[in-house]
Design brief:
5-stranded parallel sheet, Rossmann fold, Histidinol_DH_CS, 6-stranded mixed sheet, Ald_DH/histidinol_DH, single chain, Hstdl_DH, oxidoreductase, histidine biosynthesis, alpha/beta
């Protein structure tokens, strides 16, 4: 945290110069200029293989369609004395989208952040993402930005990028809300600037919890556990099962799929440190244990997943049945893949259109309403010792 605060202080004081120096120190390249031209994004899209273009278009269309249903409606209520009461939703003006780099490229993160912001009606989207060894982010990340209609992309990542979005520099505008996952430095930087700007969440390492009964296939369960473990050495992969046979089969099934795995070292570390197999005496007990963990991703590989889902109170997303691997949610099912981690599903939910909006209360009393309620307002104000609060009502009633 001390290092993050030092980085943020430098960005606030030195602006673009700090971004240049810090990016050169941490990423090995000097991002000059900081902004990637819009034409470069269009070129990346044109250079994308046709099959990948089709996959990105499908993901974009499904994510867009689902999030369009999330737009909140304004509220207008007439009170008992003719007074008007309401709530009005409006988008923030500027949103900062953080897209991580590092171990992998994440065009899916571009879509999952840009689409709800666009649906919300945000006027200006500002994307930051770390430069790769060649000085630019991954081509597919740039292509996804073009597809999602993001025109402002800056080659800067880490805590310094969060500082730029929160404070503003000569090149990068200050935003109203920052969304998108990142490493520990990014997460701590988002925590530090919260209050100056809004943030979506404090994202920790990814996690999956699978509840499986005798109907689940060992190879499919193993693949789903590995799909989380390959994200990060800190990723958690947990199996709760009522089947002794499935529990016994898992070590061999995992080992078989780890042979020649391109991310074997990361995956093995995650499984060794954060992997768990628990044999439960009932699915009800498994549901109770799952709620204690409040997983980011919960898979129900059981005969009646809908019935079991009704018993679950705390989960970021629930994937039901053998044909719904968590991977479909990561890429194109429709609901957002930015989900609460580290047990925060007890009180938080997925990134949504509302993340990029704020609501304003609307109140209009007429004389009848004030006469009917004014004495109560005066009594309450006087009970709190707030003389002018009471006086503001008395002068209208007199």
């Amino acid at each position: 945290m001390a290092r993050v605060e030092e980085i943020l202080s430098r960005v606030q004081a030195e602006g673009d110069a700090a971004l240049m120096e810090l990016t050169e120190r941490f990423d090995g390249v000097r991002p000059d200029p900081l902004r990637i031209p819009p034409q470069r994004l269009a070129d990346a899209w044109q250079a994308t293989p046709a099959s990948l273009k089709d996959a990105l278009r499908l993901a974009h269309q499904r994510i867009l369609s689902f999030h369009q249903h999330q737009l909140p409606a304004d509220l207008a209520v007439t009170g008992p004395h003719g007074e008007l009461l309401g709530r009005r939703w409006r988008p923030v003006q500027r949103a900062g989208l953080y897209v991580p780099g590092g171990r992998a490229s994440y065009p899916s993160t571009v879509l999952m952040n840009a689409v709800p912001a666009r649906v919300a009606g945000v006027q200006r989207l500002v994307m930051v993402t770390p430069p790769g060894p060649g000085g630019e982010p991954h081509e597919t990340v740039l292509a996804a930005a073009h597809l999602a209609g993001v025109e402002e992309v800056y080659r800067v990542g880490g805590a310094q990028a969060i500082g730029a979005l929160a404070f503003g520099t000569a090149t990068i505008p200050r935003v109203d809300v920052i969304s998108g996952p990142g490493n520990l430095y990014v997460t701590l930087a988002k925590k530090a600037v919260y209050g100056r700007v809004a943030i979506d969440s404090l994202a920790g390492p990814s996690e999956v919890l699978v509840i499986a009964d005798h109907s689940a296939r060992a190879d499919q369960v193993a693949a789903d556990l590995l799909a989380q473990a390959e994200h990060d050495p800190l990723a958690a992969a947990i199996l709760l099962t009522t089947s002794p046979e499935l529990a016994a089969a898992m070590p061999a099934a995992l080992a078989a799929q780890l042979e020649n795995h391109p991310r074997a070292e990361i995956t093995r570390t995650a499984l060794n440190d954060w992997g768990l197999i628990v044999l439960c005496d009932s699915l009800g007990r498994a549901a109770q244990l799952s709620d204690c963990f409040a997983p980011e991703h919960l898979e129900l590989l059981v005969e009646d997943p809908e019935i079991l889902a009704e018993q679950i109170q705390h989960a970021g997303a629930i994937f039901m049945g053998p044909y719904t691997p968590e991977a479909v949610g990561d890429y194109l099912a429709g609901p957002n893949h930015t989900l609460p981690t580290a047990g925060t599903a007890r009180f938080a939910g997925a990134l949504s259109v509302e993340t990029f909006m704020r609501h304003t209360s609307l109140i209009r009393f007429n004389r009848e309403a004030l006469e009917a309620t004014g004495s109560a307002v005066i009594t309450l104000a006087e009970s709190e010792g707030l003389h002018s609060h009471a006086e503001s009502v008395k002068r209208r009633l007199n």
